[in-house]
Specification:
Layout lengths: L3 E6 L3 H13 L4 E6 L12 H5 L13 H6 L3 E3 L4 E5 L4 E4 L3 E3 L2 E4 L3 E3 L12 E2 L4 H13 L2 E5 L3 H12 L3 E6 L11 H13 L3 E4 L3 E6 L3 E6 L4 E3 L2 E4 L3 E3 L2 H5 L8 E3 L10 E3 L4 E3 L7 H15 L13 E3 L8 E3 L8 E8 L4 E8 H16 L8 H11 L2 H16 L1
Parallel strand pairs: 1-2, 1-7, 2-3, 7-19, 9-16, 10-11, 10-16, 11-12, 18-20
Antiparallel strand pairs: 4-5, 5-6, 8-17, 13-14, 14-15, 21-22, 23-24
Length: 411
């Protein structure tokens, strides 16, 4: 029986991880072809900041070299762009050829969001998304002195730290009141800013850029409040925009990303989407962990393995800046239902905040009260007691109750 043709547009982390998962499950099911618009094999985009910070070289962030593709009988077309999907003939047209498919995975990822302001097309204005972007930033650092990063989020701060390491005078422009405002509260944001200022980074907070100055190359920035600064390089790190144009031209439903169901299937049952380009339940994820979870679900589905599907992910953030130990996950804001415990050690400059929903805290208090007032349990009572426990507590809490009682009975 001939193999089905599996074509994937996109050669990034999420897509290739999906292919790895398929090969783990059934390596003989598909004849696989991958189209990538960059000249490199699959590499770890997360580590671009390490290249900029002089910790790694481009070759060291390659995840799957050409040998891997060949050993798994995968046809790889690099430096080639898909320009059209014909759903009637199951054909993808690229800048170099036509390729037919039985199953098509869209793993087109995203691109850096560039502010639509005058001067955004000047030389010296970059995103921070690819090896090519990183190499341009390093090259600029050898010719110029001043760099400005627009965006005080995770990516912007990593880019700023890298440009500092390249010897540039770096200023970060941020619209919000404090850094990383979607992952940190105000106190943590201010502590982070002070830490980075001590490393030599400069900040202009609550600044909205209105124009990039210069004739052929950037020379400065103008802000909506009327002020200006001089700069030789502008790096925009204010978010990403999913690559959805191919899907739109193929009349597939899109929102922020390409709309998929719990099995990463688009409106066309032969076409799937995974990674940053996919939108599941209204969310287009930009961190790698959710994208790998999507890849596992899609691999199961394409290999005919029963799966419960993808139902969203919890996200966390970790800053890769030398001298800063920062981790954030889950909810960061208190409200009527979520309360927190905050610990700040001003001597060691350590800040911790732990948030819990009110029902979790009340359950913990109820568990302690329940433990204190329960007598020793005789065998004949255990069945009724177990029923009451399951009605009131979760399984981990029940295990804690029973462990406590065993210790008390032993005394």
């Amino acid at each position: 029986m001939p193999k089905q043709k599996l074509l994937m547009i996109g050669n990034g982390m999420a897509g290739v991880r999906t292919i790895e998962e398929i090969l783990d499950r059934n390596p003989d099911k598909y004849d696989i072809t991958i189209i990538g618009d960059e000249p490199h094999p699959n590499y770890n985009r997360i580590m671009l900041s390490n290249i900029l910070q002089n910790k790694m070289t481009p070759s060291e962030i390659i995840l799957n070299d050409e040998t891997w593709y060949a050993s798994n009988n995968i046809t790889l077309h690099t430096d080639e762009q898909a320009i059209l999907i014909d759903r009637l003939t199951n054909t993808v047209t690229t800048t170099k050829r036509n390729i037919t498919y039985d199953r098509l995975i869209l793993a087109t990822g995203s691109r850096a969001f560039i502010l639509p302001i005058p001067g955004a097309d000047l030389e010296g204005v970059l995103g921070f998304r690819t090896i090519a972007d990183t190499e341009k930033m390093i090259a600029a650092s050898k010719k110029y002195e001043r760099a400005t990063v627009i965006g005080g989020g995770l990516l912007g701060l990593e880019a700023a730290r890298g440009l500092l390491d390249q010897g540039m005078d770096v200023t970060v422009i941020h619209l919000a009141d404090w850094l990383m405002e979607t992952q940190l509260d105000a106190k943590a944001g201010e502590l982070l800013k002070a830490d980075l200022e001590a490393q030599g980074m400069k900040f202009l907070m609550q600044k909205a850029t209105s124009k990039i100055l210069g004739k052929s190359r950037v020379t400065g920035l103008a802000f909506k409040d009327g002020t200006q600064i001089e700069t030789d390089l502008v790096v925009m790190a204010i978010g990403i925009k999913p690559e959805i144009e191919l899907a739109q031209h193929a009349n597939l439903p899109t929102g922020r990303g390409i709309v998929v169901d719990d099995f990463m299937t688009t409106a066309d049952p032969a076409i799937f989407a995974v990674g940053e380009c996919a939108e599941h339940n209204g969310i287009a994820y930009g961190l790698v962990a959710p994208l790998y979870e999507q890849g596992k679900v899609l691999a199961d589905h394409l290999c005919g393995i029963e799966t419960k599907g993808y139902h969203g992910s919890k996200m966390f953030t970790q800053l890769k800046v030398s001298g800063c130990d920062l981790f954030s996950a889950g909810d960061i804001k208190e409200n009527a239902e979520i309360k927190g415990v905050t610990i700040f050690n001003s001597i060691e400059n350590k800040y911790k905040k732990n948030l819990h929903a009110r029902w979790q805290a009340s359950r913990c208090r109820a568990l302690r009260r329940y433990n204190r007032r329960q007598p020793s349990i005789q065998p004949a009572q255990k069945r009724r007691r177990t029923h009451r426990l399951h009605a009131r507590f979760t399984a981990p809490q029940i295990r804690r109750i029973r462990k406590y009682e065993r210790r008390r009975n032993a005394r």
